[in-house]
Design brief:
By secondary structure, the protein is an alpha/beta fold. It has helices at residues 34-38, 57-62, 65-72, 88-93, 118-127, 178-190, 201-210, 231-240, 248-260, 264-269, 287-300, and strands at 2-7, 28-29, 32-33, 49-56, 77-81, 105-108, 112-114, 132-138, 145-149, 155-160, 167-175, 215-219, 225-227, 271-279, 282-285, 304-314, 317-326, 329-339, 345-352.
């Protein structure tokens, strides 16, 4: 099973100011907290995984973060952190008793947004038989960590707050085995290779390089990565999420294309969190339940073709007359979709002829 660790010990997550009246991680954009946005990428996974949140015990009490995390990720394991640690490396090691060290591990930040398909990312790292992998974006600003690659594109060095290349590292790290991370972290701490008294995840990759491990970079497309580093970055993210909505017919065509492509992330992302989906075999309420249904449909169907014979759209409702081919079965019917003013599906009724 894939293990996912979300270290939430950083003081910056809970800072308040004139820009952040509430702790930054609970700042809302379009009625969703930044913490929720940070977890969106995991909705693209089609395989079983285990999420572990490392949270300061006092924040679990004072901010009721435990309840919030359980609503965002119902199967999450919450590990209370007693006191402060010296960075994400130390915080992540607190999950050692909850993970299988022979299984894959992802460590991901709680204050960023990555609009990418994590299942495709995993498949890419696996195809190259990577021992570790990072997502990168182009920058030379010294607030980031950086990776330098050789001619084959494999990481040969990382640096924190030092632009040794244009490959800035996004806050998501992949390890083929949890044991590789733990051993690298122990070595890092033993050598006291801290920066400003903190142990950074990027530094653990250097320890793996020294052991001859293969570390792969995967560049992110433009506008895919948003880090909630400061108030300016949060504002930029907010502006990117308040663009005028396309007409309902355009939204409907986008849904048709995503469904026909079996793009789980894109289809699920179009449903409201409390959406309802009703067809002859299902009555699903809530985005997570709809996602589970789609995971099963997409994984069990080798050939899927969703053909729109006609599309009608008026105000907040659209109607799709369709033919749906599922392997050797051909279904004909009508989808009636109700949209909210945020461009999300709140209700979908499917009728078969």
């Amino acid at each position: 099973m894939l293990n996912i660790i979300i270290p939430m010990s950083g003081a910056s997550l809970y800072e308040t100011s004139a820009d952040f009246i509430y702790p930054k991680i609970l700042t809302e954009i379009n009625n969703r907290t930044l913490l929720e946005y940070s977890q969106d990428i995991f909705a693209t996974l089609t395989e079983e995984h285990k999420s572990l949140f490392i949270v300061p015990a006092d924040k679990l009490t004072k901010l009721a973060l435990g309840n919030i995390i359980e609503l965002i990720s119902p199967s999450a394991v919450i590990i209370p952190l007693q006191g402060m640690t010296k960075g994400a490396v130390c915080s992540s090691m607190m999950a050692i008793d909850e993970i299988n060290l022979d299984e894959e591990l992802i460590i991901s930040s709680a204050d960023h947004y990555i609009n990418d398909d994590l299942q495709q990312v995993l498949d890419y790292f696996r195809s190259l038989e990577a021992d570790a992998g990072v997502l990168t974006f182009e920058s030379v600003h010294p607030k980031w960590s950086f990776a330098k690659a050789n001619d084959e594109g494999f990481v040969v060095q990382t640096a924190e707050k030092n632009a040794i290349s244009r490959n800035a590292i996004a806050g998501l790290y992949y390890f083929k085995k949890g044991s590789d991370f733990i051993e690298a972290a122990k070595e890092l701490i033993r050598k006291d290779n801290s920066i400003d008294n903190n142990f950074y995840l990027s530094s653990s990759l250097n320890e793996m390089v020294l052991k001859g491990k293969k570390i792969v970079m995967r560049p992110l497309a433009d506008s895919v990565y948003h880090n909630f580093y400061d108030a300016h970055a949060v504002k930029a993210f907010e502006m990117s999420h308040v663009n005028p909505l396309p007409p309902v017919k355009k939204l409907t065509e986008k849904y048709i294309a995503a469904f026909n492509a079996k793009s789980l992330h894109d289809v699920v992302d179009m449903f409201d969190r409390n959406a309802t989906l009703i067809d002859p075999g299902n009555h699903k309420i809530g985005q997570e339940n709809i996602r589970s249904m789609l995971v099963q449909l997409f994984s069990e169907t080798k050939l899927l073709e969703f053909k729109a014979l006609s599309v009608l759209a008026e105000q907040n409702r659209s109607v799709i007359e369709f033919e749906l081919k599922l392997d050797d079965k051909l279904l004909k019917g009508v989808d009636i979709i109700d949209w909210n003013n945020k461009g999300h599906i709140v209700k979908l009724n499917a009728y078969l002829y």
